[in-house]
């Protein structure tokens, strides 16, 4: 019975070709994290202060960040008097969601919307639905 199924559905050559393809794909995925890293980019909306400190002007928190430290959002870092964003080009979640899930409830019903998220947030909402990514830095999300 097994021999009849094997020959009817797939040859050995096709089977080994499929196995080799899967092995190559799994190898590539395993090494994709090394090649997909984006270097930090200099941030916008900040002012340099004395002693290498930074005054962040992006949100109402107005963090004053010393050298080598991060702001409250965990995604902007002071590196020797320059402010860098660690979230640029580094999404931690990409989804196709139904449009009804968004605030656009009656806009093109039945379609999808692309949702992109990066780590970090400057709020600490008690019932945040995205707390796993909003309360961590970019290096802690995969």
Description:
- The structure is a single chain.
- By secondary structure, the chain is α+β, with helices and mostly antiparallel strands.
- The protein folds into three domains: 2-35; 41-85, no CATH class; 93-140, no CATH class.
- The chain has three helices and eight strands; from the N terminus they run ααββββββββα.
- The protein has helices at residues 2-9, 12-35, 131-134; strands at 41-42, 46-48, 54-56, 64-65, 76-79, 82-85, 93-98, 112-117.
- The strands form three sheets. A three-stranded antiparallel β-sheet has the order 1-6-5, with no helix packed on it. Strands 2-3-4 form a three-stranded antiparallel β-sheet, with no helix packed on it.
- A hairpin with a 5-residue loop joins strand 2 and strand 3.
- The protein is flat and about 70 Å long.
- It starts with a helix and ends in an 8-residue tail after the last helix.
- The mean pLDDT is 83.
Number of structural domains? 3
Approximate strand percentage: 15-25%
- Can you tell me the residue ranges where pLDDT is under 50 for at least 5 consecutive residues? none
Count of alpha/pi helices: 3
Q: For the residues shown, what is the average pLDDT?
A: 83
One letter per element, helices H and strands E, the order comes to HHEEEEEEEEH
Shape field: flat
Rg, rounded, reads 23 Å
What is the number of beta strands? 8
End-to-end Cα distance: 45 Å
Sheet of most strands:
3 strands, antiparallel
Strand order of the largest sheet: 1-6-5
Helical fraction equals 25-40%
Q: Strand pairing plus helix content: what structural class?
A: alpha+beta
